[in-house]
Amino acid sequence: MSELSTIREKIDAIDTQLLKLLNDRAKLALDVGKIKSRDGLPIYAPDREMSLLRGLMEKNEGPLSPNAIRAIYREIMSAALALEKDVVIACHGPEGGPCHQAARARFGSSVNYAFFPDVTELFTAVGRGEGDCGVVPIEDASHGAVNQTLDALATTDLTLCAEILSTPDGSPGVDGKNNSRYFVMARTATAITGSDRTTLLLRVEDKPGALVDALEPFRDAELNLNHLASRPASKGSEDVFFFVEVDGHSRQEAFNEVLRELSRRCRAVKVLGSFPKAAP
Questions:
Q1: Are 247 and 240 in contact (CB under 8 A)?
Q2: Bridging pattern class, strands 159-166 and 144-145
């Protein structure tokens, strides 16, 4: 037997073991799905997903690269998610568009996708249970914040549970440079992971010094601000909506006093959601 044939036999034997292990994992995923259904738990758990991927990155000794491990496990998790439930991910824009590509990079090819040309329609559909999650653009790599999404976030009852970073070619981006960003919206909040980010909406009077005054509680609490965008509050109003991203989870103790102080300084405060930071 040639050296190549010997190596291929070893690969075939490993593939047989992998197949059995994958199906063993799938059986456990079915059990997870039953428990989630019984207990009314959300089908998508970004905190668990990030914990799993970070753990794998720490254990990986190569020669497979971190990107390769992420890609492999995205599809494994996608297949498991589809076994737990007939999952539907609502995407803004057309099939095959940038948002769909970003969603596939996060949710894989085993789940179902539905497409909506309007962000508000997408939020309404997910709110009615016609989708398990919705994926919408929040920041375009070339043109900045997506105003349609910002406006819809001001009125939706959904919560932000995850973010997706995507490079111009549609592949996942994890370094924060030259990426488009997408928000994953759901009906339930994400648990604390210890490496989280929170997005808030602050309604502030449009006058000199109002924003500086509103942001002081973050400085006092030593919470790091990392993103800020603004939109007019509504037609005929002189107020401004500021969308603020801050390190930490809104359920952490450090946020309690900050939210109370913000409520005193702003005309309205809305927690849009907390989510795990993109995996390294």
A1: no
A2: unpaired
Do 204 and 266 touch, CB atoms closer than 8 A?
A: yes
pLDDT tens figures, 247-271: 999 998 888 889 999 999 898 899 9
Question: Which candidate, 78, 35, 71, places its Cα nearest to that of 56?
Answer: 71
Contact 240, 151 (CB under 8 A): no
Q: Which amino acid is at 20?
A: K
Query: 34: domain range?
Result: 1-41
Dist. CA 52–CA 66, nearest whole Å? 13
Q: For 148-174, how does the pLDDT look when each residue is reduced to its tens digit (9 = 90+)?
A: 898 899 899 999 999 998 775 555 575
Q: Are 154 and 203 in contact (CB under 8 A)?
A: no
Q: Rounded to an integer, what distance in angstroms lies between the CA atom of residue 17 and that of residue 11?
A: 10
Closest by Cα among 134, 141, 139 to 169: 141
CA distance 91 to 40: 24
Contacts of 36 (CB under 8 A, 6+ apart): 42, 43, 84, 85
User: Are 178 and 245 in a shared domain?
Assistant: no
What pTM, to 2 d.p., does this model score? 0.87
Q: How many domains is the chain built from?
A: 3
Give the β-pairing of 180-186 and 133-140. antiparallel
Same domain for 89 and 146?
A: yes
Give the integer Cα–Cα distance in Å for 48 and 26: 16
Residues 262 and 62: their CA atoms lie apart, in Å, by 47
Query: Rounded to a whole number, what is the distance in angstroms from the first to the last CA of the chain?
Result: 44
Q: Which residue has the tokens 């309007």?
A: 118
Say yes or no: 125 and 211 in one domain. Answer: no
Question: Which amino acid is it at 153?
Answer: L
